[in-house]
Write a structure and sequence with these properties.
Sirtuin_cat_small_dom_sf; 10 helices; alpha/beta; SIR2/SIRT2 'Small Domain'; binds zinc ion; 9 strands; 3-stranded antiparallel beta sheet; globular; 21% strand
């Protein structure tokens, strides 16, 4: 059984209208990363951080998966092997498209996390400081998002998957954020065929055996079709 491991980043969600901190305009442009995406920023001004993620959650719920998300869901459905998506994105567009085997290494907007007892539950549309943890009843709720300076989720599991991958693809990732930027090297060492699908070459493009340039909504469906035809 062949195994395909796919890393997805902001580039795939951008085509569904969800911007990142690198984009001009949009939600991020009104804030500094240090204020809304670090534990220190949250400690300084929790209300600002709740509002920021409440706005992003509302925006993400309005977003619609694009052809790239759809193609990856089809790959998981139809491929005679294992398909795993590791995503850096905090939206749920892969799931909305029908993908089931998805690891959110940076957490997700639909999650709430108790900083006191680590309990996780489904975030309400509007999170606020007075929210109580349903398990320990403390008011230590925070978005279930991995902020800068925090350890991404599922790392041991992810390294295991990379070591057993036959194909590793990175789609719409900048290659600037570690540890994800080093996944290609882990997969390559394990003997996987590596392919980058990106609008612009990533910072680690030279680590890939194959590069496909273009919009994810155009390159991913073509790539998936080739995989399903066994080419
Ligand atoms: Zn708790």
């Amino acid at each position: 059984m062949e195994k395909i491991v796919i890393l997805t980043g902001a580039g795939i969600s951008a085509e569904s209208g969800l911007g990142t901190f690198r984009d001009e305009g949009g939600l991020w442009a009104q804030h500094r990363i240090e204020d809304v995406a670090t534990p220190e920023g949250f400690a300084r001004n929790p209300a600002l951080v709740y509002n920021f993620y409440n706005a992003r959650r509302a925006q993400a719920r309005e977003a619609i998966p694009n052809a790239a998300h759809g193609a990856l869901a089809q790959l998981e459905r139809d491929f005679q092997g294992e398909v795993l998506i590791i995503t850096q994105n905090v939206d749920c567009l892969h799931e909305a498209a029908g993908s089931r085997n998805v690891l959110h290494m940076h957490g997700f907007l639909e999650g709430a996390l108790c900083a006191a007892c680590n309990h996780r539950w489904e975030a309400p549309l509007v999170m606020k400081g007075a929210d109580q943890c349903p398990r320990c009843l403390q008011t230590a709720t925070r978005p279930d998002i991995v902020w800068f300076g925090e350890m991404p989720y599922y790392m041991e599991e992810i390294w295991d998957h990379l070591r057993s991958a036959d194909v590793f693809a990175a789609i719409g990732t900048s290659g600037n954020v570690y540890p994800a930027a080093a996944f290609v090297q882990d997969a390559d060492r394990a003997g996987a065929h590596t392919v980058e699908l990106n609008l612009e070459p990533s910072a680690v493009v030279s680590d890939f055996a194959e590069v496909r340039a273009g919009k994810a909504s155009e390159t991913v469906p073509v790539w998936v079709e080739e995989l399903l035809k066994g080419r």
